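Researcher: Good morning. I'm working through a list of sequences from a screen, and I'd like to move beyond sequence-only analysis. For each chain I'm collecting a predicted structure so we can compare shapes side by side. This is the next one on the list. No need for commentary yet; just the structure.
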Amino acid sequence: MNHGKKIFFLFFLFFLLGFIVHAVFFPDLLLNRFISFDTELIGPQNKTVTPTPLFGSSTSVVLYENGRFHPSSAVLKKSNRLIIKNNSKDEPMWLESEAEFLQTSRPYGYSEALNIILPQAGTFSVKNKLDPENSLILTIKP
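Model: Good morning. Structure tokens for this chain:
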């Protein structure tokens, strides 16, 4: 091999290795919302939004952090998966609701989550038993 081909081969090899390392360590940077362009560019919005679908349209995630649910209300479909995750390092999340399937039997610590498939339609309020000032309103459609 001549010198030019060796340089090209090494350049290609390092590029490929860099791509693989990035793919392994940062596979879903935007899906996990490590970077959120809407809040970085536009600023926080005080409107009702549907939770971010995680795996297609059948799984939705609601985060509990700083004493609030994000988003504070959501419209979901029956038999879809809902994850309510405690993202607050300082405050446990002990869910209570009029719907038994939206309650937790104990406080959930940081990074723990209620992970359920929604069994019935209706409108339900979910609160943190330890800090009931803010609530999550879930509307589950058939």
